[in-house]
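ugh ok so i messed up the first submission bc i forgot one of the chains. this is the corrected input, ALL of the components this time, i swear. 332 residues overall. if the numbers dont match what u have on ur side tell me asap before i send this to the collaborators (the ones from the other lab, u know who)
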Amino acid sequence: MSDTTIEPPVTAEPETPVGYDDGQDHIGLAHHTATGLSNTKLAMWLFLGSECLLFGGLISTYMLYRNRQASAIGPDQLWDIPFTSATSFVLLMSSLTMVLAVSAAKRKDERGTRLWLTVTALLGGLFLAGQVYEFTVFYREGLGYTTSLFSSSFYTLTGFHGVHVAVGIIMLLSLVGMLAKGKIVGDKAETVEMVGLYWHFVDVVWIVIFTLVYLIPA
Amino acid sequence: MSAETTHSVLPATADEAAHDGSEVHEVSDKQYVVIALILAVLTALEVAATEVGLGSFLIPALLIMMAVKFFIVVSYFMHLKHDSGLFKFSFYVGLGGALVLYSVMLATFHFFIS
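and heres the new structure output, hopefully the right one now
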C-alpha cells in the first residue's frame, strides 16, 4: 500500500480581485462578469432604453394635442425660435464639455475632469434658467398648465425634460464634490462615463423635442 | 484641453477588445470639438430651414437633420458606435420599441392622416 499523500489542487490567486474592488482604475480592461462587460454600464444602457419609452409617450401625447388649443394662444403665437435655438446650442455645447470630462477622466487628469464637469453643470444651469424664463413668459401670455390640452402636454413634456436636466446637474455637482474629496470607490473613469451617458441622453432627447415641438409648424 | 490627447474609447489592446466584445477606437479631444461644430451647424441649418420655409420638403428635411444629430451624439459622444453589441441592443430595443409603439398609437388616433 502506498503512503503517498494526495496534495490538494493549487489554485492561482487572481492578480486583481474579482469585480475590481481594489480601488484602482481599470478602464480598457475586460470585466470579470458573466458577459465580460461592465454591469454598471449595461444597467445604464438598459435604463436609457427604458427612458426612450417614457419620452416617446410624452412626445407622442404632445403631437396628438398640439392643435387642441382652448383660445388663440398656440405655438405660433408663443414660440421664440431664436431664444430657444440659443438655449439648444448651450445644451449641445454641454455635451461637448461632458465628453471632454470623460476624456480627461480616462487619462487620469482629475483637475481637468473636475473643470469640465463644472462647466457642464454651469451650461446645464444656463439651459434650465432659459427654460424657466420661457415658462414665465408663456404663463404671463396666458398659457397656464390647465389652459388647454396643448398647454398641459407641452408643460408636461418640457417640464419632465427640465427635471431630467436638474437631476443631471445634481449628479454632476455631486461627482465634482466626490472627486475632490476622493470619495469615489473603484473605477473613477467609469463613474464619470456613467454620468456622461445620462447627460448625453438628456441632450439627445432635447434634439428631438426642439425639432418636433418648436421647429415643425403646428 | 489638450488637443493632442487621445483616449481609448474601449479596451486598450486587441486581446482585451476581443474579450470585451467591442472594437478599439481612438477619438481625440480635437475630434470631439469637430463633432460638436458639425452638430452646431446642423442646428443652424434646421433653424434656417424653418425661417426660409421649404414647403413640403420642410418636415422631411427637419426630421432627417434631427435623426443625423441624434445618431451623431449617440454614436460618438456616447461611444455606442464602437461599443459592445449588448449595449447597442439594450438601447436600440428601447428606442425601436418606443418608435413602433407610439407610431401605432398615433396611427390609431388618425394622426398621420389628419
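quick check: Chain B has a mean pLDDT of 81. that seems consistent at least. The longest strand of chain B covers residues 6-8.
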